[in-house]
Amino acid sequence: MIELVVISRLLEYPDAALWQHQQELMEALQSSTHFTPSQSQGVIDFLQQLTSQDLLDAQANYSELFDRGRATSLLLFEHVHGESRDRGQAMVDLLAQYARQGLELDSRELPDHLPLYLEYLAQLPPAEALGGLQDIAPILALLSARLQQRESHYAMLFTPLIDLANTAIDQQKVAEKIADEARDDTPQALDAVWEEEQVKFFAEQGCGESDITAHQRRFAGAVAPQYLNITTGGQQ
């Protein structure tokens, strides 16, 4: 499904290639067989709005939106497992799922990064791809609501994905969940998270453990899976 590839590209960190190839993306959307004309036009409108900006401004806006705090994180398991140990096993299971499709991953994103997951779904038969969207539909709805709350144009990209999933979402519950949420991307909130991480870091060191050993133990599991990218050929 080329539509999922397009949205995957638009949800990635903006780069010069997106500006250079925007016409190709628009043509792919205009010939879409899975989006309605209205859905395709909505994504085209987003693309035109994005590329009307200076690239550096678009990059700064992206980082402010997706890299500060956790509420709008594009890491799917952030919204399911948080910091629990179940997250590690979920990563392993997802990597195995990719491997069963013959996909070799080699990029700097974790396997649950939404753009990467969408590109994986794009390689599947449409029925299976839609099933994969249904699996994450509640997360997509939550992200969409939070982005709308922040008046971000990126919310436009989630509407056709949710529509494609064609699964029941209790929008009232989503609205209630985010209604009283405190922003986690403010300087005060980010400072609090940093202080908490520092406390956890020193608590994990233990008596007699060197700084270097603690650093290696803390980050060894996080670095290895970050170099991931789908390199298989062909699109569905």
From TrEMBL:
<dbReference type="GO" id="GO:0005737">
    <property type="term" value="C:cytoplasm"/>
</dbReference>
<dbReference type="InterPro" id="IPR020945">
    <property type="entry name" value="DMSO/NO3_reduct_chaperone"/>
</dbReference>
<keyword id="KW-0534">Nitrate assimilation</keyword>
<dbReference type="Pfam" id="PF02613">
    <property type="entry name" value="Nitrate_red_del"/>
</dbReference>
<dbReference type="GO" id="GO:0051131">
    <property type="term" value="P:chaperone-mediated protein complex assembly"/>
</dbReference>
<comment type="similarity">
    <text>Belongs to the NarJ/NarW family.</text>
</comment>
<dbReference type="InterPro" id="IPR036411">
    <property type="entry name" value="TorD-like_sf"/>
</dbReference>
<dbReference type="GO" id="GO:0051082">
    <property type="term" value="F:unfolded protein binding"/>
</dbReference>
<keyword id="KW-0143">Chaperone</keyword>
<comment type="subunit">
    <text>Binds specifically to the NarG subunit of the apoenzyme complex at two distinct sites, one interfering with membrane anchoring and another being involved in molybdenum insertion.</text>
</comment>
<dbReference type="GO" id="GO:0016530">
    <property type="term" value="F:metallochaperone activity"/>
</dbReference>
<protein>
    <recommendedName>
        <fullName>Nitrate reductase molybdenum cofactor assembly chaperone NarJ</fullName>
    </recommendedName>
</protein>
<dbReference type="InterPro" id="IPR003765">
    <property type="entry name" value="NO3_reductase_chaperone_NarJ"/>
</dbReference>
<dbReference type="GO" id="GO:0042128">
    <property type="term" value="P:nitrate assimilation"/>
</dbReference>
<keyword id="KW-0963">Cytoplasm</keyword>
